[in-house]
Design goal:
With 339 residues, this protein is α+β, with helices and mostly antiparallel strands. The chain contains three helices and 24 strands. The strands form six sheets. Strands 2, 3, 4, 5 and 6 form a five-stranded antiparallel sheet that branches. The chain is globular, with a radius of gyration of 24 Å.
Length: 339
């Protein structure tokens, strides 16, 4: 009888342990992801293989899923990434990934985003601020705005503060887009397909100044300024490109004026829209989005299930995140110097 009771107790105890282990694995088996199929990602840039001179999809199945994914920005220490996702209506939401103890988390809606339309995140060079554009209401209003303003959040320990509107010196009733900040604090942004800069002096931003006509033709947006302001990347639909929006580079001369923009070439640009350039904090890579599709032949002789996978795959015609070696910038600069 004693042996039977002990055997019964061992059986109950074993089942209890099995239930506890199962609950742990289901609810809390990992502190860096919320789904069992999220890969273990380590290393800089999510551990992805670096690209060469030909653009490659960045993080397929990790960040790039076949939605609209755009405007990736990375913290100077490389431990936090923000980017934008949207549907076909271009309803923007900012997404975050962060690296803790060497392991990358699963993407999540940024703690300050999700309620209103938010887009174009951009780190300050010191990583203490994250600028972004939003239609959120100003002050005590509750309704969304009709246009975008520039806002920012500040790093506080491991968290981010509540968003702050940048103020009237830059924000007005027009859409203000695609902010990018140099190490000197100069802020570059776009209003109505025209690029502007505002200088930071005496702890405030000056009245924005339109960049010289070598840059602006009325078709420019998404400025990305190098930390030392030596180079400016942007997108444009100006004549002479390879498709819709193309990526261009301009270099600041000794006179403080910007050079005639140089198309970044067919190795970077495509017959589709190429937009939203960002330079990695170490200056090694350029990130951008592209609507370039998969080859049509990939859709031939496929089952319905195989077609669904392709439709949900990056490069399905929506904006897919790419990255490319930033050495192209030096190539373009040497080409300009040789003229």
């Amino acid at each position: 009888m004693f042996k039977v009771v002990m055997s019964f107790k061992r059986c109950v105890w074993s089942r209890f342990i099995l239930v506890v282990i199962s609950m742990f694995l289901f609810f809390g088996g990992s502190n860096h992801c919320g789904s069992t199929d999220w890969p273990l990602l380590k290393g800089d840039y999510l551990g992805q293989k670096p690209p060469g001179p030909i653009p490659e999809v960045f993080g397929p199945g990790i960040i790039s899923h076949g939605f609209h994914e755009l405007r990736l920005t990375i913290s100077p220490d490389g431990n936090e990434m923000f980017y934008v996702t949207s549907d076909k209506r271009w309803y923007y939401t900012i997404i975050r990934l962060k690296r803790d103890h060497g392991i990358w988390s699963e993407p999540e809606v940024a703690p300050f985003s999700g309620k209103y339309q938010d887009t174009s995140p951009s780190f300050s060079p010191d990583g203490k601020r994250l600028y972004f554009c939003s239609k959120r209401p100003v002050r005590d209003r509750t309704e969304s705005r009709e246009d975008f303003d520039i806002w920012y959040v500040e790093k506080s320990g491991r968290s981010w503060t509540e968003p702050v509107n940048l103020g009237h010196a830059i924000n007005d009733r027009r859409d203000v887009w695609d902010v990018s900040v140099s190490s000197h604090g100069s802020m570059y942004f776009e209003v109505n397909d025209t690029l502007y800069v505002s200088r930071f002096k005496d702890k405030t931003y000056s009245v924005p100044v339109r960049l010289n006509n070598g840059i602006n033709t009325g078709h420019e947006s998404s400025p990305c300024i190098a930390p030392d302001e030596s180079c400016l990347l942007f997108q444009s639909t100006r004549p002479g490109g390879y498709g819709g929006n193309d990526l261009y580079a301009s270099f600041k001369g000794d006179d403080g004026l910007w050079s005639e923009p140089i198309n970044m070439g067919e190795s970077v640009n495509s017959a589709s829209h190429d937009f939203g350039p960002r330079i990695s904090p170490d200056g090694a890579y350029i990130f951008f989005s592209s609507g370039r599709p998969l080859e049509s032949s990939l859709f031939q002789n496929k089952t319905y299930g195989e077609l669904l996978k392709l439709y949900r795959h990056p490069q399905n015609g929506h904006g897919t995140l790419f990255w490319v070696d930033a050495g192209i910038i030096e190539v373009l600069k040497n080409r300009l110097d040789d003229k």
